[in-house]
Design a protein that fits this description.
The complex is a heterodimer of chains A (311) and B (266).
Chain A (H helix, E strand, L loop, with lengths): L1 H6 L1 H26 L5 H22 L9 H22 L4 H22 L8 H5 L7 H20 L1 H9 L1 H6 L4 H23 L4 H15 L3 H25 L4 H25 L18 H14 L1
Helix pairs in contact in A: 2-7, 2-10, 2-11, 2-12, 3-4, 3-5, 3-10, 4-5, 4-10, 7-10, 8-10, 11-12, 11-13, 12-13
Chain B lengths: L10 E12 L2 E12 L3 E6 L5 H8 L7 E6 L2 E2 L9 E4 L13 H6 L14 H11 L15 H13 L5 E5 L7 H16 L3 E5 L12 E6 L2 E6 L21 H12 L6
Parallel strand pairs in B: 3-8, 3-9, 6-7, 7-8
Antiparallel strand pairs in B: 1-2, 1-4, 4-5, 9-10
The chains are: A mainly alpha (311), B alpha/beta (266).
Chain lengths: 311, 266
């Protein structure tokens, strides 16, 4: 049965796309959660919809067949422009990141629906982008996915220490002379590329889930930045590949299955993790240091007794 | 450098007629400050007098509205040799949505200027920096689970890890117990003996007093005193105040110095 699935060329392409998205989305998601911009992926996804419609419009205007040949490049361009724009707004500080995101949400959806109408299509044409269409991944789509994933991984993993520094404490990064603005733009652009990579697999509306939920799972079991990123990627690959496998045998939406699976993993891990870590404590958490005040003898004895209890 | 012509020592920090406005508030109102190589300068002043704003302007976090700041001879910006500058911010809510270990946070101190990747042997350097602040065994601990004083020491280690020639600290020992303050003072003593220059924002001189060569006191956004370190007030009689010599400077400092006394320990 597995052999049947693995020899199906449609499924081969879909599995490879799912694998790549499963690895890359959580890498970028880790930085977004770190800078408390978990919803940035959603904002970019909405703007990418306008890009899809714009690509469609240009494609129709140029007489290309199929009409949506430029939809994915359009999404890439719009997502990159939108994400850089939000970084500019954040830097100017006139609008908070939160408000800027909200405005992106509305503008992206409205622009997409408006433009697709002008292009002679209907909102229905946008459905495959909103909810994903992994079974229709073509060779060209796959190549674009491979190239964009490679870029995202090279930057996201290669620059991880610098991106961590900027995301963890931006003021300190400035005071270290790091090119903070450039690094922020890098995170924004890489997020945009990830959104467009994941668009075919889970759809623009669920892209963000794939960036954020694996990170939420990883956070339950680790307390280090690097390990959170690694764990999240493993979770991402597992849910993407197994979710897609389920849809090979059962006629359900791949994107929705993958996201529901990820959330199920989150639920199970958050129930199980406390049981695993409850065990015995790793030793006395209180350092054994002299007090800043002179204690009466009785208090010193009580302190010694308390220290013994903790051992 | 302008200052180096009339002083034999090299100027490492220089602020000239520095103004900083935040909206309608005029926070720094023409601050002049010079720190020469080998000096340990304490920056004192009441809460809200502009100490942190000044320090942030010196390291490039705040862009001054007017005036100029220079570090190591270069205008604050990409021309500064950041590998030689260490900055310890006031303890803040810094830290993102993902827990990180002490090792990860301290390692970020090894990145500066155009160095965007960790150098070879970074683990050893991070371990050495953590040792210097007495947290050598806490490298793997998530920072958010450490106590406030320990978190403060992590920030000091993050600045020390790049082995700077100039250290700029913003209240490095606020909320740190006396034993750790003594350890910190001992570390600083060793580094200063090796040629480190220090500009440190303090509320009171405390354990660092023997090291401080000069004090600059800010009041309402201006330098109101630049010279000998003021002596602690007579009403200091808590643990940690070993140096209680009445001094004529007390009178000139007046209320500002009194305000310095109030906040050090949680």
């Amino acid at each position: 049965m597995i052999t049947l699935m693995l020899t199906d060329p449609f499924m081969q392409r879909a599995l490879l796309a799912a694998l790549l998205v499963g690895v890359t989305a959580p890498v970028v998601g880790t930085y977004l959660v770190q800078r408390k911009l978990s919803l940035l992926g959603d904002g970019i996804g909405h703007v990418a919809l306008t890009g899809v419609a714009l690509g469609w419009l240009v494609g129709v205007g140029a007489g290309l067949t199929p009409n949506d040949a430029l939809a994915v490049p359009g999404a890439v361009v719009a997502a990159v422009v939108g994400s850089v724009l939000i970084e500019v707004v954040r830097r100017r500080g006139r609008t908070s990141g939160d408000l800027a995101l909200a405005i992106m949400f509305y503008g992206g959806i409205a622009g997409g629906v408006l433009l697709i109408g002008i292009a002679g299509g209907s909102a229905g044409n946008l459905m495959q982008y909103l909810f994903g269409s992994i079974s229709t991944v073509s060779d060209a789509d796959l190549w674009l996915t491979v190239v964009l994933s490679a870029v995202v991984l090279t930057v996201g993993v290669g620059l991880r220490h610098a991106l961590f520094s900027v995301s963890h404490d931006e003021e300190f990064a400035v005071a270290s002379g790091l090119p903070v603005w450039a690094l922020n733009v890098v995170v924004a652009v890489v997020s945009a590329l990830t959104v467009t990579v994941a668009m075919r697999v889970v759809g623009l509306l669920l892209v963000s889930a794939l960036m954020i939920v694996p990170v939420a799972v990883a956070q339950q079991v680790t307390h280090a930045f690097g390990r959170t990123m690694l764990t999240a990627s493993v979770v991402g690959v597992v849910v993407c590949v197994s979710g897609l496998t389920i849809t090979y045998w059962h006629n359900v939406s791949p994107g929705a299955t993958i996201v529901v699976l990820a959330i199920a993993v989150y639920a199970v891990v958050s129930l199980v993790a406390p049981l695993l870590t409850r065990g015995r404590p790793a030793g006395d958490p209180h350092p054994d240091l002299p007090d800043d005040v002179d204690l009466p003898a009785a208090a010193t004895e009580r302190a010694a007794a308390a220290a013994k209890e903790c051992r | 450098m302008r200052m180096s012509t009339d002083h034999p020592a090299v100027t490492v920090v220089e602020a000239r007629a520095l103004h900083f406005r935040a909206g309608a508030s005029h926070i720094l109102r023409g601050v002049d400050l010079t720190v020469r190589r080998g000096e340990v300068v304490a920056l004192l002043g009441a809460n809200g007098s502009g100490k942190s704003t000044l320090v942030k302007s010196l390291v490039g976090i705040n862009a001054p509205t007017q005036g100029e700041a220079r570090l190591l001879g270069a205008p604050v910006g990409s021309g500064v040799d950041w590998s030689r500058v260490g900055y310890v911010p006031q303890r803040s809510g810094a830290g993102g949505g993902i827990p990180s270990t002490a090792q990860e946070v301290v390692a970020s101190g090894l990145l500066h200027g155009r160095r965007l990747r960790l150098p070879r042997g970074w683990r050893e350097r991070v371990a050495a920096a953590l040792d210097q602040v007495g947290l050598g065994d806490r490298g793997g601990d998530p920072v958010h689970l450490l106590s406030g004083g320990q978190q403060q020491r992590i920030l000091i280690a993050r600045a020390l890890v790049r082995e700077p020639d100039l250290l700029i600290l913003d209240e490095p020992v606020a909320g740190v117990d006396v034993a750790s303050q003594e350890a910190f003072a001992a570390t600083m003593r060793r580094l200063v003996d090796d040629g480190l220059t220090v500009l440190v924002v303090l509320h009171e001189l405390g354990e660092l007093e023997p090291l401080v060569t000069r004090a600059v006191v800010l009041g309402h956004g201006k330098v109101v005193h630049d010279g000998a370190p003021p002596r602690p007030r007579e009403d200091h009689d808590r643990a940690g105040h070993r140096h209680q010599h009445p001094h004529a400077d007390d009178n000139t400092l007046g209320e500002q110095a009194r305000a310095l006394d109030l906040e050090v320990r949680p």
